[in-house]
Amino acid sequence: xxxxxxxxxxxxxxxxxxxxxxxxxxxxxxxxxxxxxxxxxxxxxxxxxxxxxxxxxxxxxxxxxxxxxxxxxxxxxxxxxxxxxxxxxxxxxxxxxxxxxxxxxxxxxxxxxxxxxxxxxxxxxxxxxxxxxxxxxxxxxxxxxxxxxxxxxxxxxxxxxxxxxxxxxxxxxxxxxxxxxxxxxxxxxxxxxxxxxxxxxxxxxxxxxxxxxxxxxxxxxxxxxxxxxxxxxxxxxxxxxxxxxxxxxxxxxxxxxxxxxxxxxxxxxxxxxxxxxxxxxxxxxxxxxxxxxxxxxxxxxxxxxxxxxxxxxxxxxxxxxxxxxxxxxxxxxxxxxxxxxxxxxxxxxxxxxxxxxxxxxxxxxxxxxxxxxxxxxxxxxxxxxxxxxxxxxxxxxxxxxxxxxxxxxxxxxxxxxxxxxxxxxxxxxxxxxxxxxxxxxxxxxxxxxxxxxxxxxxxxxxxxxxxxxxxxxxxxxxxxxxxxxxxxxxxx
Length: 492
Ligand SMILES: Cc1ncc(COP(=O)(O)O)c(C=O)c1O
Hints:
The protein is α/β, with parallel strands linked by helices. It folds into three domains: about 90 residues, Orthogonal Bundle (Arc Repressor Mutant, subunit A), CATH 1.10.10.10; about 130 residues, Aspartate Aminotransferase, domain 1, CATH 3.90.1150.10; about 240 residues, Type I PLP-dependent aspartate aminotransferase-like (Major domain) (Aspartate Aminotransferase, domain 2, 3-Layer(aba) Sandwich), CATH 3.40.640. The protein is about 40% helix and about 15% strand. Helix 1 crosses helix 3, helix 3 crosses helix 4 and helix 15 packs across helix 16. It is globular and about 65 Å long. The structure holds pyridoxal-5'-phosphate.
């Protein structure tokens, strides 16, 4: 089978609408903006050769534009040789187009949005909730000397499937100091928490397995789990994190293979699992047979002072995932798995199929960075709440009907729209120069589309322009619904 051939692949209208976030031009006739966006997706191979595009009416509804706009855009793409229309089988990407790149469906996480593949756009990026790097990362990285690197390069051939021993020791010590005794044999270094999730999914799940996830949850986890053919079931969560009573109810009616939770700080809501719920959850692990995956990637970004408990405890069926990305910098591309040694060995084997280890240079930096984790948390505590205040003040004045869940950490606000749905709003917002993720991408069943996630770890001026544009988009959404809007010079 040709990996890049999209024969028979049907792209639903809502999916195409989401893929268009961050693509195309932001001015000119609307049909031209639409055809430019689709052309970009086709040329990059994200809409692969022979893929079937949604019917014009469906795409028009998903994008809140008129059908004639979509008809004109498809026509322009036929004229430029990208699309063809076949009697009875709708509109397809021509078989000889865009064969040089991979499909967007192969990308995961918050980083699937196409703007990660491009240079900076005129669009304000509210679709990502990454944290800026701390200067500490540059300070520590530049403090390493030639002798440090010589010691590293002369002592290793460079392939270290489980990770640098010094880093595994350092992370084990960090857990032990936090009250969860840990040995280096219980740590597997990964290329980010996203890879950790992928390994757990591939190592633990089989088609048909039940997986319970919070509603909402991290979209990269949803993608990793659903790709194994598992059946995802949502469970309620609120300001105190996972609703453990609802989980208990679900466990009475089924035996999931895996439960995925974010106990430390939650993406997208910023919730922190309460102490009482932590204890009840730990008891449930004892009473049932599921594997509990606790993704603590955002640990250290809580607003309250204090170390926080680093893991839910030691148990052969608890797998804890950690990351350097949120506390320090995503560009290090380092995360880890804490699990019993047998699970670590098994997941290391799974990892070896696709990857022979993470960069030892980055790991050498990480060993030293972890000595500064308290200072890093303090720095996050001194900056993140200010961004949150700026964002909520802006929302209160410019979008007073919007409500949100008060976060206790992290870099994003989980916002509820008073009416309508965020998939359509996101399309409209794009035309006002704001890239937004609809809430549906954070849920197992797509039912949180009356929400969106707004990032706040951004400069005040960016937040101001972004919310001003969003308020304009919202006004248009309320007034005009599914009517064409062309935005050119009104962007502030
Ligand atoms: C909850 C959660 N898990 C995992 C990841 C992936 O992190 P990493 O950069 O370590 O791959 C993210 C990133 O946004 C996240 O929010």
